[in-house]
Amino acid sequence: MDWIIILSKAFWCGWAALGFGILFNVPPRTLFALWVGGAIGGFLKFTMLQMTVGVVFASFIGAAAVGILSIPIAHFRHVPPMIFAIPSVIPLIPGVFAYRTMLGLIKLTGAIGADYNMILSETVNNGAKTLFIIMSLAIGVAIPMHVMRKESAKNIRLKKSTK
Amino acid sequence: MDQNKISETKELGSLLLDVGVSLLSSGASCSRIRITMKRLATTYDHEAHISIAPKSISLTLNDEDDNLLFNGMRSTPAQGVNFKTISGISRLSWDAVENDLSLQQVRDELNRLLSLPHYPRIIILIFVSLAGAAFCFSFGGKPPEMIIAFGATFCGLFIRQEAIKKKFNPYICVFFGSLVASLFAGAFIKAGLNINFEHAFATSVLFLIPGVPLINSFTDLIDGNILNGIVRGINALMFSMAIAFGLLIAMLIYHLN
Question: What is the C-alpha separation between A142 and A70, in angstroms, rounded?
Fold first, then answer.
């Protein structure tokens, strides 16, 4: 595996998460946590891709890790979990697939030529990937809160009370 | 019932509605809005019934014996995503529960939260542009493409902020941002530089993706707020179409395919 490429991609994913955090005006005390969250999500996604796991599942694992991490961070930094989770999963959004889908749809409006079937299959493939990756990101982020079945992260105990 | 209690209930109702619409317009999910408002209402011995529409919130307050005391409705101010407001209100609601704040104290704290400044504009521009370059790298871009993505994001975001200041329709603001960013990126490709066309073009507009409406849409759908989830999803789709339209126009201008 090419660890240098994975680690440098994770490093830059952290910066993407941080940039979006600033765009969404997060409290300054969460900025470092955002960088770490983005980097961990990116690290897991790109490691999975190297292990030839499909891109949808790889993104889901990255997002689920961010979702689970968001609960201890909510305790530690006193913010609602979504404030950490949303900017941290944004680097996993499939921008290139969305772009190819859009481009393909525009090409499909042209005349039907010899390669029309090829364009059609590629567009459907890219569109399906985009849709499912975005869905898996949202589910990955939302699930940890629902698995805990608590209305607020404050009620989730991190360690069992010894009393 | 004495006059004092009536005015207190009115004050509580108006405070809860302000909390609700601030959360709604800053990009909180429906369940968060509902939980926060109910938590505050219970703290002050009232029972709240809340209905959240896409752009307004209605509320009725009952006392412990289920007598109707207050009903009201408020529509949201036009305002962008602001996570500082959401985290501030979340802390405030816990503060009110744990430290028995008076209504006036909560109101003062809410006003302080709403007047907190954003990050300085130049910081936003630089860090979001850095995020654009980071996106470019994670999709396999090389340093020259990252620099182009940085510049394109910087120009696009600047134009979008200007358009928001001039109170254009939000979708049109996104369209302007996408058009300027892709015109910037396209200029380098047109100039004949040996760069990967797809990486530079596709990542130059990614700062506009409606991440918060997209994820909130699914959160609302999972929580059973189907209507709000659909509305937020369509909203995200409209933003994506505005982005695509800007890209398309830039490609037509440069004759790129």
Answer: 10
Reply yes or no on whether the pLDDT at A162 is more than 50: no
Q: Residue A118, Cβ neighbours under 10 Å: how many?
A: 10
**For residue B51, which amino acid is it?**
S
Chain A residues closer than 8 Å to B135 by CB = 16, 91, 95
Q: Alpha-carbon Rg of chain B, whole angstroms?
A: 23
pLDDT at B150 over 70: yes
- By CB atoms closer than 10 A (0-12, 13-18, 19+), residue B53 is middle
Count of residues in chain A: 163
C-alpha–C-alpha distance, residues B103 and B95, integer Å: 12
Contact between chains at B139 and A96 (C-beta distance less than 8 A): yes
Residues B90-130 have pLDDT tens digits of: 889 888 888 888 888 889 999 998 888 889 999 999 999 99
CA dist B212 and B220 (Å) reads 12
Beta bridge partners of residue B59, listed in sequence order: B50, B72
Residue in chain A closest to B201 (alpha carbons) equals: A99
Do the Cβ atoms of B145 and B195 come closer than 8 Å? Answer: yes
User: Using an 8 Å Cβ cutoff, are B76 and B39 in contact?
Assistant: no
Spatial separation of the C-alpha atoms in residues B99 and B120, rounded to whole Å: 33
Q: What is the model's pLDDT at position B70?
A: 86
**Residues 6 or more apart from B165 whose CB is under 8 A from it?**
none
Q: Which residue of A12, A78, A88, A145 to mutate against B (max B Cβ within 10 Å)? A: A12
Q: Which helix (H) or strand (E) holds B46?
A: none
Q: Residue A38 and residue B85: Cα distance in Å, rounded?
A: 22
> What 8-state DSSP symbol labels residue B208?
G
CB contact under 8 A, B123 and A22: yes
Neighbouring CB atoms inside 10 A of A157's CB total 10
d(C-alpha B73, C-alpha B64), whole Å: 22
What is the residue whose two structure tokens read 């697939």? Answer: A97
